[in-house]
Write a structure and sequence with these properties.
It is a single chain. With 172 residues, the chain is mostly helical. Strands 1-3-2 form a 3-stranded antiparallel beta sheet. The longest helix is centred in the N-terminal third of the chain and has 30 residues. The protein is globular, with a radius of gyration of 19 Å.
């Protein structure tokens, strides 16, 4: 670009930049494709399904809003808007725990559990296979797991609980 000041970057920078752009655009593209597929098949978005799933496997089927935001890798305001949508659908309720009146928990309702098991979960697995799994072989998947874990660990964000076995068999 013209008139941009020179910066000191390592010789590997072009490959680092290209790799970053590829992974960033790939994740965004797959998430958008999965959301489109899920909206078409289950009238729900990917992140709405992920919220229902996280609540379903949480103790008491409840999480603080801050913990839910962390698990979904979104901001507190983003999770507030998400939970608003789920409350309107009757899938989640908000409760203030008696032991901490400054906290608000998102709680999965029976209708929310039914929506998860009957509708969003099957749509999620179909979208995951169509938009992601069918495009990769076993070696690709193993490489992505290894690289993903390495990046998470490098930023002190790997949490084995996020990847633990669940009653719904290894989904997110």
């Amino acid at each position: 670009m013209e008139n941009w000041p020179e910066i000191d970057v390592p010789d590997s920078h072009p490959q680092v930049l290209s790799s970053w752009l590829h992974i960033h655009q790939a994740v965004e593209t797959v998430e958008n494709a999965m959301t489109g597929r899920m909206e078409q098949g289950a009238q729900t978005s990917l992140i709405e399904h992920q919220a229902l799933f996280r609540l379903a496997i949480a103790p008491g089927r409840r999480l603080s809003m801050l913990r839910l935001a962390d698990l979904l890798n979104t901001s507190p305001s983003g999770v507030t808007r998400l939970v608003d949508r789920l409350v309107r659908r009757g899938w989640v309720s908000r409760e203030v725990p008696p032991e901490n009146r400054r906290q608000t928990d998102a709680v999965l309702t029976p209708d929310g559990l039914h929506a998860l098991t009957a509708t969003t979960r099957p749509a999620y697995h179909a979208a995951l296979e169509e938009c992601f799994g069918s495009l990769l072989d076993e070696e690709d998947l193993a490489d992505l797991q290894r690289i993903g874990r390495k990046l998470l660990e490098g930023h002190h964000r790997f949490d084995a609980k996020k990847f633990a076995s669940t009653p719904f068999t290894h989904e997110q």
